[in-house]
Amino acid sequence: MKSIRFSAQEAPANLRPDTRVFGVSGSPRRNGNSDILLKSILTGVVQHDLSSEYLNLTDLQFQGCIGCERCRKDKICTGLVDGMSVVYDRIISSQGLILVSPTHNYNITSWMKAFIDRLYCFYTFDNNRPRSWSSQLAKQGRKAVIAAICEQENKHDMGFTLEAMKLPLEALGYDIVGALSVFKIFDKAGVKHDDHAMKRAQELGGRLADALKN
Ligand SMILES: Cc1cc2nc3c(=O)[nH]c(=O)nc-3n(C[C@H](O)[C@H](O)[C@H](O)COP(=O)(O)O)c2cc1C
User: Fold this and answer.
1) 200 alpha carbon, distance to own chain's centre
2) 86 burial level (CB within 10 Å; 0-12, 13-18, 19+)
3) What's the 163 CA to ligand 1 centre distance in angstroms?
4) DSSP annotation of 56
5) Ligand 1 pocket member 83 (CB < 6 A)
6) From the CB of 183, is ligand 1 less than 6 Å away?
7) Which has the closest alpha carbon to 212: 37, 92, 45?
8) Measured between alpha carbons, how far is 42 from 205 in angstroms, rounded to an integer?
9) How far apart are alpha carbons 189 and 147 in whole angstroms?
10) C-beta neighbour count of 4 within 10 angstroms
């Protein structure tokens, strides 16, 4: 598993996905609970013989979608030129995807929301209103797992965090093969001491790898 730091000179997209996994953390607390959970999920992926890379979104210079709709014609985001230009390559070329977010106000973080909005360029719409759509990422055996972590102790307090990742990924054509909710963790890196959560995270990574290999 390796962390990636992006430079503007990296290679352009390879269009078909490889059997590997790209992991994304949406926490602004670097090496905090979401990063630790993500790394544990990736350990499971690697133990099941797939390669992986991960990214904390705060390492990326990028903006939220500006709704310019240039992607309708260009099929990729051309309205903004920023760190996402290179991340698109990782998304296209990785058949597996992991999204992890802490709960911020009952929802995913603003970084994770901005990231998901930037995946809008992968949709193809028709011209009716409301428009029906398909995804350029669909029907390629893409699979994902999602995880959320929060301070409070039940689903209500986690709010929409898991759904806010699940629904867009499904619309984009990912089969969600597992989801993990971790409660009652507030302190930075506190999840390290939750053996049950760490074990479930690792198992989730193994499940993703197995699903991709089958
Ligand atoms: C701005 C902000 C909003 C938060 N909102 C919630 C919330 O709605 N529900 C909850 O249970 N925890 C909430 N938390 C607590 C975090 O989800 C919790 O501390 C989590 O473990 C942080 O994970 P991280 O280390 O990956 O950032 C909030 C934290 C912050 C900073």
Assistant:
1) 18
2) buried
3) 16
4) E
5) no
6) no
7) 45
8) 6
9) 15
10) 16
For the stretch 36-86, pLDDT in tens is: 999 999 999 999 999 999 999 999 999 999 999 999 999 999 999 999 999
Tokens of 34: 């979401």
- Give the helix/strand (H/E) hosting 96: strand 94-102
The whole-angstrom separation of Cα 84 and Cα 117 is: 11
CA distance 82 to 63: 8
Candidate from 24, 99, 146, 151 with most ligand 1 atoms within 8 A of CB, to mutate:
151
User: How far, in Å, CA of 88 to CA of 84, rounded?
Assistant: 6
Q: Helix crossing, 161-172 with 110-117: angle to 10°?
A: 10
Alpha-carbon span 214 to 164, nearest angstrom: 27
Domain annotation for the chain: domains and CATH numbers: 2-213 (3.40.50.360)
> pLDDT by residue (tens digit) across 160-203?
999 999 999 999 999 999 999 999 999 999 999 999 999 999 99
How far, in Å, CA of 109 to CA of 105, rounded? 8
23 by DSSP, 3-state: which? strand
- Residues 54 and 42: their CA atoms lie apart, in Å, by 8
Contacts of 28 (CB under 8 A, 6+ apart): 58, 109, 111
Q: Ligand 1 mean position to 82 CA, how many Å?
A: 27
